[in-house]
Amino acid sequence: MNIFVVDDEKAVRDYIVSLPEWEHLGCKIIGQAADGWEAYEALIEMKERIPDILISDIRMPVMDGIELSRRVLEKFPDMKVIFLTAYSEFNYAKQAVKLGVSDFITKPFHESELLDSVKWIKEHRLDRQNADLIRQEEWIQTLLNPDLSEQAKSAALGQPELLMKSAVFLSIEIDNVDFLDYTGKPFSKLTLREKIFEVMSFCPFPYWSALSQSGVYLILFTPLTLPQDETAHEAMDVARRILETSNESLGFSVSIGISDCLNSALELRRGLEEAKSCLDYRMLIGRKSIIAFPAMRSLKEQKRAQMEINHTELTEVLRKGEVELIPDYLNKMNRIFLLEGLNKKRIQEECMEMVTVTGKTLLAFGLQPNPEEMLAVRKSVLSFTILSDLMPFMQQFLEKAVSVIGSVKQKTSGNLIDHVTKFIELRYMDDITLQLLADELFINYSYLSRLIKKETGQNFRDLLWEYRVEMAKIKLSTTNLKHYEVAYAVGFKDPAHFSQLFKKLTGKSPGEYKS
Q: Which residues carry this modification: 4-aspartylphosphate (predicted)?
C-alpha cells in the first residue's frame, strides 16, 4: 500500500516516514508535503501512483486537513484518510466521520497507534462499516436534539425498524479525557470504537454507535418482550466485555455509564442524561468503572443531606506553613467526599474553593499568586474525572503553597523593615511609592503597609518624608542651594509643601534652618 504524509512539522513527517515497520506491513511512503495545498497539488499530479492512504495533520497553514481530505476524497473516493492532530474537538471527529475519514489520532501519538490504524484499513475492517456509521451518526444526533419533538424526530428518521425497539444507552468515556488532551497525552476515540466493534460482533442484539466528545455512545436495542431485569443484565454484560477488551489493549482507560431501560430510541435524550449522571460518580468510584443508573439512583436516595464544607481548617493548615499537615487534611476531605457521595461537579467545586482559599492565604502573607499558574491549576481541577487522580494533584498544589508560606514565615519582620529602610535611603530623591517597593519585594501591598505600621508606628509615606527632610537638613547646611532647589533635590515636587513639612518636623522654616 502506498502512503502520502502531510504535516507542517518537519520532525513529525520525518518520524512517520522513517518508521521501519512500513516495509514489514507491505507499505511504502511515496510522498510528503508541509501543508494541505502543497499536498493537494502533488496528489493531483500523481495520475498513476495514487496513494492508498493519506496521513494528514488537521491544523496547517494555507489549507487545513479537513479541506484537503474533502477535495481529495471527491477526486479519489477510494483513498483512506487518517487524521493526526493535537486537538480532540468533537466537531473535528464528526466532520472526519462524515467525510469518510478512517481514523482520528491525537498528538503526540505512539507509533503503534498509527501502525494499527493502517493495519485495520489494509484489512478493510473499517471500510465495510463506513456508510452505516455515517447514517447512525446522523440518526443519533437527530434523536439527541433537544429542540425536536418525538414526532419530528420520528419523521426525520423515516421510521427505521429499530426505532420502536426498547433500548439502553451506554456512554463509554475515556477517563480524564480533558486532562489527557490538556497534557498532550495520546488517545484515539476511533481506536476505542474499533475495540467496541470487536465486542459487539459477539452480541446477539443490534446496536448503533457514534463518537461523543469524550468517547463513544453505544445504543443497545433489545426486544420489547425481554424483561427489564434481563435487559439490564445484557447491558451490564456488554459493558463488562467492553471494559475488559479496551482496558487491556489501549494506552488509556475508559469507564461506562448505563441508562435505565428506554421504551424506544425516541427516549434517547433521557438515556444520555442518565448515562452522563452515572459517570459523574466515576469521580468517587475511580477509573475503569461501570455505573448503572438504577444503582446510582438508589445511592442518591440513601445518602445523607449534603453538609456544608467549611474551609476554615484549610486556612489554618496553610498558615502553619507545615507541609506534613497537607496529607492528613486531604485524607479527611477525601473521606467527606466519599461519605457524602458527592458527584463530580460538587467535588470539583470544593477543590476549586481550596484553590481560592489558598490564593487568599498567600495574599495574606504578602505573596502575589501568579495568575497564569492559578488559572492552569483551575483548568486541571476541572479536567479530572477520577477522585483518586485529583487528590494527588491537589496535594502537590497545596504542598507547594505551604512551602512558600513557610519560607516567608522564616523571614523576620525586621528583615523586611531593613529592606524598606534601604529602599528609601537609595531612592528617596526619586518618585517612589509603596506599591513600587511591594512589587520589587514580590510582597502584597496591603500586607507590607500593615507590617510597616506595626513595626515603626508610621506609614511608608511618613518614613519617606522624614528621611527626605533629614537629607534636606544636610544640603541646607553644607551647600549654597536655595530652599526650593533643595526641595527638588531630595524628591519633593512642590517647594511649598516641602517648606510646610520641614517646619512641622523641625520647628523651623528651611530659610531659618539655613541661617
A: 57
Give helix 312-320 / helix 387-410 axis angle, nearest 10°: 50
| Cell 523586611 found at | 416
Q: What pTM, to 2 d.p., does this model score?
A: 0.47
Strand bridging mode 53-57 / 2-6: parallel
Q: Which residues does 251 contact at the CB level (< 8 Å), separation at least 6?
A: 110, 113, 186, 187
The residue ranges of DSSP E strands in 254-297, in sequence order, are: 254-258, 290-292
Reported as type and span, the H/E element at residue 88 is none
The greatest distance separating any two alpha carbons of the chain, rounded to the nearest whole angstrom, comes to 114
State the angle between helix axes of 293-302 and 268-280 in degrees (0 to 180), rounded to the nearest 10: 60
Sheet holding 254-258, edge to edge: 207-211, 215-222, 166-174, 254-258, 290-292
- pLDDT value, residue 271: 92
The pLDDT of residue 368 is 81
In the structure grid, which three cell numbers stand for residue 224, read together? 420489547
The residues with which 219 forms a beta bridge, in sequence order, are 169, 208
Three-class secondary structure of residue 32 per DSSP: strand
**Residue 108 DSSP one-character state:** S
CB 192 within 8 A of CB 254: yes
Q: What was the pLDDT predicted at 124?
A: 57
Closest CA to 487 of 505, 469, 503, 474: 469
Q: Tens digits of per-residue pLDDT, 448-503?
A: 888 888 888 999 999 999 999 999 999 998 888 888 999 999 999 999 999 999 99
Question: What residues have CB less than 8 Å from 19, skipping those under 6 apart?
Answer: 111, 114, 115
* Parts of the chain with a pLDDT under 70: 47-48, 86-102, 123-131, 159-161, 181-184, 186, 297-310, 409-414, 442
Q: In whole angstroms, what is the distance from residue 196 CA to residue 191 CA?
A: 9
Residue 92 confidence (pLDDT): 59
The residue among 158, 201, 187, 200 whose CA lies nearest residue 250 is 187
Q: In what order do the strands lie in the sheet with 53-57?
A: 28-33, 2-6, 53-57, 80-85, 103-106
Which pLDDT does position 98 carry in this prediction?
A: 56
| Residue type, position 417, single letter | I
Joined together, the cell numbers standing for residue 219 give 445504543
Question: What letter would DSSP give residue 262?
Answer: B
Tally of helices (H runs) and strands (E runs) in the chain: 26, 10
- Tell me which residue of 42, 72, 51 sits closest to 4, measured CA to CA: 51
pLDDT given for residue 168 in this prediction? 94
Q: In which residue are the cell numbers 523576620 written?
A: 412
Q: Is 184 exposed, middle or buried (0-12, 13-18, 19+ CB in 10 A)?
A: exposed
